Amino acid sequence: MNQIRKIWPKIDLFSLRVRLTIGIAAVSALGLSSFAIWTSWKMQQMLIDGHKDKTAQIANRLPRDLQLYSQVMSPEAGLEKAIGDFKNTNTFVWIRNSENKIVIKSTNWNQLSDSIETELMSLTEMSNKPEIGKINHRYFVLCGRYLQIQGKTIGKLFVVQDVTYEQMMFLAMVQSLAIGSILTIIVISVAIAFYIKRALQPLLQLSQMTEVISAADLPEAKIYIEKAPTEVKELAQTFNMMLSRLSQSWEQERQFVSNVSHELRTPLTIVHGYLQSVLRRQNNLTPTQQEALETAASEAERTIRLLQDLLDLARADSGYLQFTMKTCVLNDLIVEVVSMAQKYSDRIIMIDLIAKSVEVRADYSRLQQVLLNLIDNAVKYSDADTAITIKLIQQNEEAIIQVCDHGYGIPLQHQSRIFERFYRVDEARTTSKGGCGLGLSIVKTIVESMGGGVTVRSKLGEGSTFTINLPASLNCS
């Protein structure tokens, strides 16, 4: 039972395989059932209807025989002669007169038990058309009609033929036919299921191949299936053409983002420089002018950072994001990053480092960028009176950096998507904080490019912890 429960959930009742199996099995069952019914009907005709015809012939012939016998002998002698002809057969004959008394009966009743004889003799009416009747687990063909001799009705003739053997054989054959049909349907259904599974295997391969294709695989992605039906091969070719178009579209989009970011960054940098220059000579500015210039400089700086992030992502997608890998001491790096962060923020940033030096092979400036992004994220989404903690630990051959805050937290349903580009948990709050939804995506891209990984653990109202895992160098001390 447990095994069935394990297998059953894996069966998709709406899959093409199940639908085809049920459909073909249903058609097979209908065809076999029709054949079984037709065969049973033919067997009924062969085994039973022949006895019905024989009984009807006896009922029709006996009056004629009596008519012939009565011409050469007395009616009573002719009646005994005609009835006596059935003494060695399984046909039982008797005649009832108008007073419902038995006038004469055949002499072969010793073949039947007394109970069956009594029950047959108790019958007073029978159909003119032969019919099957069951008496005490035995089967008989029953037929009755009025008997006339020389135009005079002498009673009612009853003709009964014992067909128990034939009927039992017929029922046994019908039962065997039914069992055989059911077993055949089961075998056919199983065979059909395996055949359909094998026939649909190319479609499963096609699904598995397309499932693992990512945006990075588009330029080289190619689907080819051997020993597949023509329709599946055509479908694979259609997929290949679609992947080619997607690759071209994706490449054009990346090139566009890269070009726009690069072209806009330079003039915006110049504009930002002029704004900063004007602000440094603020003695000639009114308070309103100074506020307007500060706002413009702040927005220009935010746009430059956005363009730089877009440019980094475009380069990473194209494989052109450059890394200068060298051995870095994380203890010193974290102290330096915290010192830089505190220059731009008045927040309390605590450092929790292990005593020994932890070395990793990474790009020093890119790792600085990652930590500054995480600290900036913690500053934006936590209250000003709460501290931010940077932890460094080493487990086995991994260096682990954690950036912890006691801020608003991230809902569980959003935690798996916060590293997606332009994804924002709270659109209104993110906009007010100046975020654009690219910082965490940059963090993930850089860390993974250096062979590491980044995860988040958060709880609403208690804060978030971002964890960076990097392979530690073997020569760490």
**N-to-C span:** 58 Å
Largest sheet, spatial ordering of strands: 2-1-5-4-3
Summarize the main sheet: 5 strands, antiparallel
The backbone outline, from C-alpha atoms, is: rod-shaped
The CATH class of the largest domain is identified as Alpha Beta
- Overall CATH architecture of the largest domain: 2-Layer Sandwich
The CATH homologous superfamily of the largest domain is called PAS domain
Low-confidence regions: 4-9, 428-432
> How many structurally independent domains?
3
Please report the total strand number as a whole number: 12
Kindly name the structural category: alpha+beta
Mean pLDDT: 79
Q: What kind of assembly state do the chains in view correspond to?
A: single chain
Could you name the CATH topology of the largest domain?
Beta-Lactamase
Task: Describe the secondary structure blueprint for this structure.
Blueprint (H helix, E strand, L loop, with lengths): L1 H6 L8 H57 L2 H10 L6 E6 L5 E4 L8 H8 L9 E5 L2 E12 L2 E11 L1 H36 L1 H11 L18 H51 L6 H32 L6 E5 H15 L4 E5 L5 E5 H17 L7 E8 L2 E7 L7 H4 L11 H7 L5 H11 L3 E7 L3 E9 L6
Parallel strand pairs: 7-9
Antiparallel strand pairs: 1-2, 1-5, 3-4, 4-5, 6-8, 9-10, 10-12, 11-12
Report on the architecture of this protein.
The chain is 56% helix and 18% strand. By secondary structure, it is an alpha+beta fold. The protein has three domains: 16-177, 2-Layer Sandwich (Beta-Lactamase); 230-318, Signal transduction histidine kinase, dimerisation/phosphotransfer (DHp) domain (Helix Hairpins, Orthogonal Bundle), CATH 1.10.287.130; 325-471, 2-Layer Sandwich (Heat Shock Protein 90). Strand 9 (388-395) and strand 10 (398-404) form a beta hairpin. It is rod-shaped and about 155 Å long. Residues 4-9 and 428-432 have low confidence and may be disordered.
